[in-house]
Amino acid sequence: MAFDMAFDIEAHRGGRALHPENTLQAFAAALAMGVDTLELDVGVTSDGVLVISHERRLNPDLARDADGNYVAPPGSPLIELPLAEVQSYDIGEIRPGSDYAKQFPEQRVLSGPGVPPPRIPTLKQLIDLVRGSGDAHVRLNIETKLDPDHPAEAPDPERFVSLLLGLIEAEHFADRVMIQSFDWRTLQLVQQRAPAIPTVYLTIQRGRSPNVSLTQATHWTAGFNPADHGGSLPSTIHAAGGKVWSPYFADVTLELISEAHALGLQVVVWTVNKPDDMARLMDIGVDGIISDRPDLLRKVAAEKGLAKPVGQLHIQRPAPGLPEK
């Protein structure tokens, strides 16, 4: 499996600085903007439907009931709610005064009198939207939302992956998706069951919730230990069978990017919203950027000569019956 070097402009949750996150409206706006990839998160309802949500629960800063009341924290787990109930909530406006609202003051409100409110969409609805857009090139970068510390809030990895791959295969969409996760167990299962679908290994090494350590395996890394690979994340991900390394942007350096490229890995960083950071990362050779501001990202990429009318991360698969290199 080989990648070309076209730069990948990814709209994080559809571009949540501009439109309510993970809504069909946000994804439609990102498509119109000319992004290469729609980045999104999926969970599973109690009736086994894949829905697009960053949180494993209803988000108290986003979900409002029919009376206009935001749900009480911490919000019910999606896995305990049927699709009909999940889609009964309006997610068109961030809770006013919340930290989230302060983070994205320019986000457009999509709820109001006479306006059909955005609902938590299903993954199938997004695939239908992409097909209906006429864009034959845009890809989906789908994150599986599991947390080994909270296993009851999502299906087990085997069922999660079975549901996800089942839908992708039923929709004949396998050549237009990547699957990403901080929980590498799901990526290992994808590689076993659908080796033609590229896997994207998410990492964060700082803050309160790092998912990787350079000195030991964690419960996020499916038994893979960077200490067994010289303390190198690129080498660990290569050994795990990954095709793309997706680190937090502040964790990456020119040296690490060069190391990843030497191993045949692409490097797509998250989440970058400042033009200066975008430009610096492009200059040191990242292959793509995930951003809440795809409008700014596309502008900077154009200034660098990296944005194309169609410029996604192309993935060339071997012809049927031929071995992969």
TrEMBL record:
**GO MF, one example:** phosphoric diester hydrolase activity
Q: What is this protein called?
A: Putative glycerophosphoryl diester phosphodiesterase
GO biological process terms on file: lipid metabolic process
Listed InterPro entries: GP_PDE_dom, PLC-like_Pdiesterase_TIM-brl
Q: One Pfam family, short name please?
A: GDPD
Q: Where is the GP-PDE domain?
A: 7-301
Q: From what superkingdom does this record's organism come?
A: Bacteria
Instruction: List the CDD domains.
Output: GDPD_SpGDE_like (cd08567)
What species is this protein from?
A: Bradyrhizobium oligotrophicum S58
